[in-house]
Write a structure and sequence with these properties.
With 399 residues, this protein is of the alpha/beta class. The protein contains 13 helices and 18 strands. The protein binds nicotinamide-adenine-dinucleotide. GO terms for molecular function: saccharopine dehydrogenase (NAD+, L-lysine-forming) activity.
Length: 399
C-alpha cells in the first residue's frame, strides 16, 4: 500500500491551490485500491477540509506515514519530512538564491524531489502547469484596468466570482470599445488570453491588417515567436536556433507600438532574449499603449516598465513615461501595468482541477508504479543526492 499526502501550503502569502481536488482523490481511491490518501488539514485551501471528508478522504494533522507528498509552492524547511518523496514547484533549477537553503536541507534529510516544472514531453514541452488560468485571469485584469482607466465599461475582480463559469456569465452583454489588443506568446498563458478574447468577442486580425487599418469593432493580433523575432543578419526565424541563440535576434514589436491600446504579454522571456520595447520608446508621442497586462511577469524582463509585482487586490500600478517612476494607476502621464505573480490564485478551484487532471492523466500512474523516463528527468534529488541531469546545481546545492 502506497500513501499519498496532500500537504498544507506553508509559504507566505499562503497559496490556496491544491494538486488533487476531493473528486479527483475519490476517483483515485476507487481506481487504485493499492493507494491510500491523507489530506493535511488546512484552513486556507480552496477546497475545505469538509469537502475532502465528504468525498470520503481522511483529513489529519499527521502526514508522517505518507510515502509521496504533493504540494504546490516551496515547502518551508521546518516542514520537510526526512526520507519522503516530494512533488512541488521548487524554483531551484535556475539556482534561485531564495531556495538554496531549502534544497540543501532536502539533501541533508535524504529527500527525493520531483519538480512539476521539469516534467516535460519528449520534445521539451511542459506537461503540467497553471499557465492557462494565469492567461485567463491576466487578460481579464488587463481589460478591467483599461475599463477603469477610460471609464468606458466596468469589470469586477475575478476573485469576486465563485468560479470560471460565473466569470463567463459576466461577459454577456459586455460591449468593448474599438480597441486594438496585441497578444504575445504561444504557450499556455497565451491560450488563456485567447480564450478571453473569444469570450468577450474581440475579433482576431492578421498582423498586416492590424498595422494598416482602423476598425469599427475591437480586434486583437496574436504574435508568436515568428512574428516577433528575426535573425539580425540572415533575417530568418528558426525556433530551435532562436531558443539557443536569442541574442542573435532582433525584436520586431516596435512597429506595433503606435497601433496598440492594450498589450497582453504571454511570451517566454530569458536574459538574452530581446525585450519587446525599451524605456526610450515610451517617451515617443507615437507610443499608444495605455495598458499592459504583463502576464509573463519578469521584473525588468520583456517589458521594461514592469517595476515589480502588484497584488491580487491591487494588481495595477502606473509608470511615468519619462521619469520611470511608479504612479497611482490610471494617471494621465502614466502607462498602467498589471503584473501579479500568482494570478491563478484568483480562480483556484478551476486551476486546481485542471492541474490535477493533468497530473492524473500523465504522471500519477507511473509515479505509483515503476516510474518513467519523464519522471526521472524531473527528479532533481534522489534520496538526497543530485541526479545526473541536475549535477550542474552542485555548487548551488553545496552551501
Ligand atoms: N503571472 C503568473 O501568475 C504566471 C503564471 C504562469 C506562468 N507565468 C509565466 O508566463 C510565461 C509563459 O508561461 P506558459 O505557461 O505559457 O509557458 P509554456 O511552457 O506553456 O510555453 C512557453 C512558450 O515559450 C517557448 N519557449 C520555451 N523555452 C523557450 C526558450 N528557451 N526561449 C524562447 N522560447 C521558449 C515555448 O516554445 C512555448 O511556446 C512564463 O514565463 C511563466 O513563468 C506567469
Amino acid at each position: 500500500m502506497l500513501t499519498i499526502g496532500l500537504i498544507r501550503e506553508g509559504k507566505t502569502p499562503t497559496d490556496n491551490r491544491v494538486a488533487l481536488t476531493p473528486a479527483q482523490c475519490k476517483w483515485l481511491l476507487k481506481n487504485r485500491p493499492d493507494v491510500h490518501i491523507l489530506v493535511e488539514s488546512s484552513p486556507g485551501r480552496c477546497f475545505s477540509d469538509e469537502e475532502y471528508r465528504r468525498a470520503g478522504i481522511t483529513v489529519t494533522d499527521d502526514i508522517s506515514s505518507c510515502d509521496i507528498l504533493l504540494g504546490i509552492k516551496e515547502v518551508p524547511v521546518q516542514q520537510l519530512l526526512p526520507g519522503k518523496t516530494y512533488l512541488f514547484f521548487s524554483h531551484t533549477r535556475k539556482k534561485q538564491p531564495h531556495n538554496q537553503a531549502m534544497l540543501h536541507t532536502m539533501m541533508d534529510r535524504g529527500i527525493t524531489l520531483i519538480d512539476y516544472e521539469c516534467l516535460e514531453h519528449e520534445d521539451g514541452q511542459r506537461i503540467i502547469g497553471f499557465g492557462f488560468f494565469a492567461g485567463i485571469v491576466g487578460a481579464h485584469n488587463g481589460l478591467m484596468a483599461y475599463g477603469k482607466r477610460t471609464g468606458q465599461y466596468q469589470l469586477e475582480h475575478v476573485y469576486k466570482h465563485k468560479d470560471y463559469r460565473a466569470l463567463i456569465h459576466t461577459y454577456f452583454g459586455l460591449k468593448l470599445p474599438n480597441i486594438k489588443i496585441a497578444v504575445t506568446g504561444s504557450g499556455r498563458v497565451a491560450h488563456g488570453i485567447l480564450e478571453i478574447m473569444n469570450l468577450v468577442d474581440v475579433q482576431e486580425v492578421e498582423p498586416e491588417e492590424y498595422l494598416q487599418r482602423s476598425f469599427t469593432y475591437p480586434v486583437y493580433v496574436h504574435l508568436k515567436g515568428r512574428d516577433l523575432y528575426r535573425h539580425a543578419t540572415t533575417g530568418d526565424y528558426n525556433r530551435e536556433h532562436f531558443h539557443e541563440h536569442p541574442n542573435e535576434y532582433q525584436c520586431l514589436f516596435r512597429q506595433y507600438l503606435p497601433h496598440t491600446d492594450v498589450l497582453m504579454n504571454g511570451i517566454y522571456w530569458a536574459q538574452d532574449i530581446p525585450r519587446l520595447f525599451e524605456w526610450e520608446d515610451m517617451q515617443r508621442p507615437e507610443f499608444a499603449i495605455q495598458t499592459i497586462a504583463d502576464i509573463t511577469d519578469d521584473t525588468g524582463g520583456s517589458i521594461p516598465c514592469n517595476l515589480g509585482d502588484g497584488t491580487i487586490d491591487n494588481p495595477v500600478y502606473g509608470v511615468h513615461r519619462t521619469t520611470r517612476e511608479k504612479l497611482t494607476p490610471y494617471h494621465k502621464d502614466g502607462v498602467d501595468v498589471m503584473a501579479v505573480g500568482n494570478l491563478p490564485n484568483e480562480l483556484p478551484r478551476d486551476a486546481s482541477r485542471y492541474f490535477g487532471e493533468q497530473l492524473l492523466k500523465h504522471i500519477l500512474h507511473d509515479l505509483l508504479g515503476n516510474g518513467s523516463v519523464t519522471i526521472d528527468r524531473a527528479t532533481i534529488l534522489k534520496n538526497g543526492q543530485l541526479t545526473a541531469p541536475f549535477d550542474y546545481l552542485h555548487h548551488y546545492a553545496a552551501h
